[in-house]
Amino acid sequence: MKALNSFGFPVLRFNFRGTGLSHGEHDQGKGEVEDVRAALDWLDAEYHLPLLFAGFSFGAAVGLRAACADVRVRAVIGVGTPVGPVAADTEEPRVYTFEFMQDCTKPKLFVSGARDQFGPRAKLEGLVASVPAPKKLVLIEGADHFFEGRLRELREAIETWVKETI
Fold first, then answer.
1. Cα gap 103→37, rounded to integer Å
2. Contact by Cβ (8 Å): 100, 69
3. Segment 47-61, tens digit of pLDDT
4. What gap in Å lies between CA 110 and CA 12, rounded to an integer?
């Protein structure tokens, strides 16, 4: 959010349905794709600028699905993209699929911690290898899923990519 805002991009950060103080109930990723579409609609109506999508973890998994298909979105960023099973203590593991990205020809940046427990390196490298160019993968050494102690490197990776790409 801070990296994109530093370039003057308007940034909308929101909670998905049923998260925090938001209304509604979690919809296993289906309705949340609609939440991202509604956010993109609002940004387009409010600012009338080319859109850049960035999502973290679950937000990347559902947001990339909405953003890749949206002609208004110029480029996409997946941070901590969950290519491995994700489970909280109280739920069954969630497994996200990314076949839809086979048709995504927009510039793509994937940033992940080299020790991301939900983004095993080999699976993430396989996903990135399978999608069309342009694309870039940045692995931040020593970082876990939440980039604890490595947020500066995360921001620098996004800023560098935006300067090179947008």
1. 18
2. yes
3. 999 899 999 999 999
4. 20
Q: State the fold for domain 2-165.
A: Rossmann fold (3.40.50)
Secondary structure letter of residue 106 according to DSSP: S
CA distance 10 to 52: 10
Confidence of residue 157 (pLDDT cuts 50, 70, 90): very high
Residue with tokens 């947001």: 63
Please name the residues in contact with 17: beta carbons below 8 A apart, sequence gap of 6 or more: 23, 24, 25, 26, 27, 31, 32, 35
Q: What angle do CA 104, 14, 41 make, to 5 degrees?
A: 55
| CA pair distance 41, 28, nearest whole angstrom | 22
* Exposed e or buried b per residue across 80-94, where buried means at least 16 C-beta atoms within 10 angstroms of its C-beta: bbbbbebeeeeeeee
Mean pLDDT value across residues 135-157: 96
3-state helix, strand, coil in the chain (%, to 5): 40, 15, 45
Has residue 91 got a pLDDT over 80? no
136: nearest Cα among 112, 159, 109: 109
Where does 74-150 have alpha helices with state H? 121-130
Q: Rounded to whole angstroms, how far apart are CA atoms 28 and 35?
A: 12
